[in-house]
From TrEMBL:
Residues 4-238 form the ABC transporter domain. Transmembrane segments: none annotated. It comes from Pyrobaculum calidifontis (strain DSM 21063 / JCM 11548 / VA1). Keywords: ATP-binding, Cell membrane, Membrane, Nucleotide-binding, Translocase, Transport. This is Carbohydrate ABC transporter ATP-binding protein, CUT1 family.
Length: 353
């Protein structure tokens, strides 16, 4: 059942087209992440859903109602920003309880209900030991969690979140990320979440809308975004490290790529050959059908290694769990898992094969 609908939404700021004809549907209870680089229009799209911006054209629907001309307060959404604001003179408890207190008649909440909801969300965000503290006496990361708790304590139709975890330190961010997903699942609140962090997107989302230059390039579940990118932009934005892309040109039966040739899969125009770092097998010795490269540098990252390899005039990355005893300048032999390879049109970036 669709719950939030964007219908051909465009937003211009003077000459800048921040959001370019975006149509998108979010199902009830779904967790959708807008993912993209800085300036791609994620925040503006979210603010349009919240009612903080009016679209230049297009309509927004929430729960079957056209809300395009409604004020934020009339939409029953809760928004969490990266820049939090809390009431410094109030305690943590009072801060979190505030949205419930002001609506307690409408929501029919007893003081006990309020306490239970505040405690639950405070526990989830690991600030339950701070409930009696003045908000002004907290660290920045704790204040951020109070602001998040204050948004999450409400159970509106939609939660809208703009990089809510970005000011938390790495360890707490991981914990809160998991707790947030659990709470969203438990309560089933439709959630739209903006981030430029692909790990957050992949871990949290039911579906990811990858955005670039004001447009949605692909809208699909995380696994599909990762394994079946429909555009080179998605392939090279998602993945750590992202997909290798090598420019190749057809020459009859073969595709000429940097430092090697492949059988032409049937293209007549220049293309990008795309292969993820984990779909490349490597060997220090020559093996049948392998492509020869030269080790540029090896980067150990805990349980894995990233081998940077020069192929012709191009640097690619190979990801491996095997111990690597290679040095810069050593020869290395690579085999691509061609079943996992992608071919993108050089001119448009669109997936061909
Ligand atoms: P970031 O991750 O950096 O926050 P974003 O993807 O959220 O980026 P937006 O903030 O939506 O991007 O901005 C999209 C484009 O619209 C940018 O080019 C930005 O400069 C422009 N823009 C956003 N708000 C305004 C405004 N109020 N006036 C003029 N231009 C704006």
């Amino acid at each position: 059942m669709t719950f939030v609908v964007l219908d051909r939404v465009t937003k211009r700021f003077g000459n800048v087209v921040a959001v370019d004809n975006v149509s998108l549907e979010v199902k009830k209870g779904e967790f959708v992440v807008f993912l993209g680089p800085s300036g791609c229009g994620k925040t503006t799209t979210l603010r349009i859903i919240a009612g903080l911006e009016r679209p230049t054209s297009g309509r927004v629907y929430i729960d079957g109602v056209d809300v395009t001309d409604l004020e934020p307060g009339e939409r029953d959404v809760a928004m969490v920003f990266q820049d939090y604001a809390i009431y410094p003179h109030m305690t943590v408890f009072q801060n979190i309880a505030f949205p419930l207190e002001v609506n307690k008649k409408k929501l029919r909440l007893t003081p006990r209900d309020i306490r239970e909801r505040v405690e639950r969300v405070a526990k989830m965000l690991q600030i339950d030991h701070l409930l009696n503290r003045k908000a002004s006496q907290l660290s920045g990361g704790q204040q951020q969690r109070v602001a998040l708790a204050r948004a999450l304590v409400r159970e509106p139709k939609v939660w809208l979140m703009d990089e809510p975890l970005s000011n938390l330190d790495a360890l707490i961010r991981l914990q809160v990320r998991a707790e947030l997903k659990r709470l969203q699942r438990d309560l089933g609140i439709t959630t739209i979440y903006v981030t430029h962090d692909q790990v957050e997107a992949l871990t949290l989302a039911d579906r990811i809308a990858v955005m670039n230059a004001g447009r949605v390039v692909q809208y699909a579940p995380p696994g599909e975004i990762y394994d079946e990118p429909q555009h080179m932009f998605v392939a090279t934005f998602v993945g750590n490290p992202p997909m290798n892309v090598l420019k190749c040109t057809p020459a009859g039966e073969v595709l000429k790529c940097p430092g090697f040739e492949l059988r032409n899969p049937g293209v007549s125009q220049p293309v990008y050959f795309g292969i993820r770092p984990e779909y490349i097998e490597w060997s220090p010795k020559h093996v049948e059908g392998a492509v020869k490269g030269v080790v540029y540098v090896v980067e150990p990252i805990g349980s894995e290694y990233i081998i940077n390899v020069t192929l012709g005039n191009t640097l690619i990355k190979v990801k491996t769990f095997r111990e690597v005893a290679l040095r810069p300048g050593d020869e290395i032999y690579l085999r691509f898992n061609l079943r996992k390879a992608k071919i993108f049109d050089e001119a448009t970036g669109k997936l061909l094969l």
